[in-house]
Design a protein that fits this description.
The chain has 258 residues and is α/β, with parallel strands linked by helices. The protein contains 10 helices and 7 strands.
Length: 258
């Protein structure tokens, strides 16, 4: 349960929060699939693009030689983490102009980042450049809400306007999601190829996330951790569904074209 827990300055916070780990419902549902697709080896060098607080970077560092967490907002918290974990480095830089040579990384993680940038093809081209020939790019991407459009329709609320508000809230530069065909076309343009994908979450997890978690955690962030503790055990039942059952996000394993 302690997956992705970032140590706090105050010991009492660690005692309370560590047993629950990273309390982000969507990312925690995706975490086992992402880690499995990364297939980490002890000698791997890994890049975590758009690493946020560094929760995934922290877990990856436990299994590999070196991890670089990249984000446009590197804070004191990142420095504190990297000081205690010698094989984890955080840098602040633009992901379309990485300060690394060609074919440098064994694995690259792009968790819920692609839908937020305008120059998605430039980003993937740059990741293609620094990825080894036999490396893997693992990414999670929204494919559109499943239940929210139906709920909004009941209350005669415009869905497209809702998306605009949400995108502004998160700083998303594009529409905020991709269809599967759009992703495959984008991969082809950037000389990448999807080798495997899973919808994560599926219908149940998407229902729990969209109906009970998303709105309340977005508008009342102080109760987000409480919502996670209550809803995560229910959302875990989502794993019983077929991997191809459509949900609101998708996780893909991508490699370079031969």
């Amino acid at each position: 349960m302690s997956f992705g827990h970032i140590p706090r300055d105050k010991k009492w916070k660690n005692l309370i929060l560590k047993p629950f780990g990273w309390m982000n419902l969507m990312r925690r549902l995706q975490a086992p699939i992402i880690m499995r697709m990364l297939d980490l080896k002890r000698d791997n060098v890994v890049l975590d693009v758009g690493c946020g607080s560094g929760n995934f970077s922290l877990e990856i560092a436990k299994k590999v030689k070196w991890v670089v967490g990249l984000d446009l907002n590197v804070r004191q918290q990142h420095k504190r983490i990297s000081e205690s974990i010698p094989n984890l480095t955080f840098i602040k830089t633009d992901a379309v102009a990485l300060p690394f040579p060609e074919k440098y990384f064994d694995k690259i993680l792009l968790s819920s980042v692609l839908q937020m940038v305008e120059e998605d093809s430039l980003l993937l081209q740059e990741l293609h450049r620094v990825l080894k020939e036999d490396g893997r790019l693992i990414l999670s991407v929204p494919v559109g809400y499943v239940y929210i459009p139906k709920l909004l329709n009941l209350f005669l609320i415009d869905y497209q306007n809702f998306l605009r508000v949400v995108n502004e809230k998160f700083g998303t530069k594009t529409k905020g999601y991709y269809t599967l065909s759009e992703l495959f076309n984008l991969f082809e343009v950037t000389k990448l190829k999807c080798e495997y994908y899973e919808y994560v979450p599926h219908r149940l997890g998407s229902f729990v996330y969209e109906v009970f978690y998303f709105y309340w955690s977005l508008n009342f962030p102080l109760i987000q951790n409480l919502l996670f503790i209550i809803l995560y055990p229910v959302a875990l039942l989502d794993k019983l569904e077929s991997v191809k059952t459509r949900g609101n996000e998708i996780v893909l394993s991508v490699k370079k074209m031969r």
